[in-house]
Amino acid sequence: MNFKAKTSLSLSAAALFFLSACGDDSSSKSVDTPIDNLPVTDSTQVNDNPTPGDSANTPADTASTPTDSIPAVDDSTATEPSGSKVVMPPEATDIVAAVTIPKEEGKGLLIDDFEDGDNASLQGEFYWYDYNDNNGGDDGDGASEIKSPVNEDGYTTARKSDNGTNYVWAVYYALDKGEYKYDPYVGWGVTVDTEVDYTKYGGLTYWYKGGAHTVRVETSDVTNYDVHMMSMKASRTWTKAVVRFKDLAQEGWGGVEVEFNPANITNISFQAKGNGKIDSLLIDNVYLQDTSEVEKDVADMEIKDPVIPEVTIGDIAISNPLQAKAMKYLNKGINITNWLEDSSAVFNGKFKFDEDDVKLMAQNGIKSLRLPIDLDHYATNRDAFVADAADTVALAFDDENLFGVLDAFDEWTAKYGMSFVIDYHEYDNGYNTKTAINAKYTKMMAEVWKHVAAHYAENAREDIFFELLNEPDMKNGKVSTANWRKAAQEIIDSIRTVDKKHTLIFGDAEWYSIKLLAKGTTLNDDNIVYAIHTYEPFVFTHQSTNWTDLKSVKNLMFPYDKEKWSEYSADFGVTKSLPKWYKDAIFSYNEIANKEYILNLILPAKEWAARNNVPVIINEFGAYNLKTDKQSVLNYMTAMREISDTLEIPLTHWGYTGGFSLFESAADGVKGSKLIEGMDEAYGLK
């Protein structure tokens, strides 16, 4: 059988919902490639200076390789359907090889070198296919496109190469979220002959040129699409990807970890995602390495004694009554996550979490509820308001749903003795470097908060808090503190025209940065609590997370334990493609994985608060615990609680259920059932 381009495979987006930009619990800053609003060729992950020997980026010839994907686009001759964002360049008649990649002549199995020019692999009647996000079902339809060259009969085919071979496989794509709930995606791959014994193979290699992508080795025992994969950076030169099977990791959203078993390989595939990207990828010489060809682990680390830094705490007393208020109402808190902060989540009368959850929290000693919600989703004409330079459009609101959900949590938290923080929290990154300098966008945010504040102005509770905006420019962290503080002051002034009573919460730019707060000044209002976020050591708290580059990292304990350490970084999931700053953190783990190190990072915020006589809180912290040693998570929680007690900084944990969780999930996998064993003592809830 052959797949024609006009009938290329399209998988259900519902089945592939793991492509969510936020994954299961994107607790804080996004570490992966920023998502832009405008179509651009991806250059954010380009490896212009690959490290020699880097198995994920080994250049064939960095001196003579052109920087653009081949062949060049010729708009005068390229023809595409009307409205298509993908322009597939015409095939050049004469191509001068810029590089010459070597043939694969080892003991392994060459799946395809494309030299026959068709869409069948070298295994026989096993074919290359592609798919997109256009059939999302309940998750909405994406609008991404993917195309490959076709022959005169309409069948997909390989195209001529500039790497010294005759042909390569080429895909051209445009990623467009459309109405899809999660990150847009396209994918392509090849089925393999399942009669072959793949246990004799230990890795995969291929050559590529083009955009960032993941390579995926699919197996029949993974039934929920949470396949084993590895991320590859964009490269505008021909680059050899080397993937050891032992370094593959599931993305983690599926909830069920399956050990990789090469005996069950069914497909080798690739995927690209990220809204607004238009790019291409050429691949060649897809090859399974014999186990004897796979690179062996080397002893590349030392087993060292732990290094515990000295801690010096001066006078950190705060006489401001807000300090006592913060300690009373904002300590031992929790966030409800993976709901109303999502880029496509708007409350419609159906509660994902409800009174039963609030009751369960309170019964287990939780004192505060922070509710992340993207408030401007309920401004029904937001875009028209922002675009109206003449100020003739008044902002309109969906009050039925906005206050339907907020009033319910106001009622439930009051009933069970918990404070309530309304946290303006947006995963769509509406506030970014472009909108931060748009006066109308700032005015929109100020008007949204004025509307909410007016609704609660007469509410007698003193334990309702308004958090101005969580982590401004959350995706990228590039909005300046000056621009954000200017916007925040405008929001504050707007709120105070209708509500002078309720306390506000402000965090600085760069993901509620401690350093920025410690260098800044207080805002013009005397009823503000200042907030910071901390997830250090990040390699511990975010190991195995599917939305960072730490997918493969594993087995890190807290605190550092010399007796459990290894000379082999591979034992902790370190691969050659892991970014340097993460490698550095793991190689110096004996210095950073202790309570004192974290305390010294937080201390400047407390010292700033003491100098300015204002309270500071930590309203996001936590450790991803789906694959992390359970006792290490409890040890980390204990350290954070002891730091909180020492510095008198209230804590609010990121996560109720899910990956960052205090509670075990009920049978539905969403609502909580009971507090995780040992968490009562670790978090100080007894």
Could you walk me through the main structural features you see in this protein, from its secondary elements to its overall organization?
The protein has 686 residues and is an alpha/beta fold. It contains 14 helices and 24 strands. It has helices at 321-329, 355-363, 382-387, 399-415, 439-456, 481-496, 509-512, 514-519, 538-541, 580-587, 589-592, 595-612, 630-647, 679-682, and strands at residues 58-59, 109-112, 128-132, 145-147, 159-160, 167-174, 185-191, 201-210, 213-219, 228-232, 235-244, 249-250, 265-273, 278-290, 333-335, 368-373, 419-424, 464-467, 503-507, 528-533, 616-620, 652-653, 663-665, 672-675. Strands 1, 2, 4, 5, 6, 8, 11 and 14 form an 8-stranded antiparallel beta sheet that branches. The chain has an 8-stranded parallel beta sheet with strand order 21-20-19-18-17-16-15-22. β5 (159-160) and β6 form a beta hairpin. α5 runs parallel beside α6 (481-496) and α12 (595-612) runs parallel beside α13 (630-647). It starts with 57 loop residues before the first strand and ends with a helix.
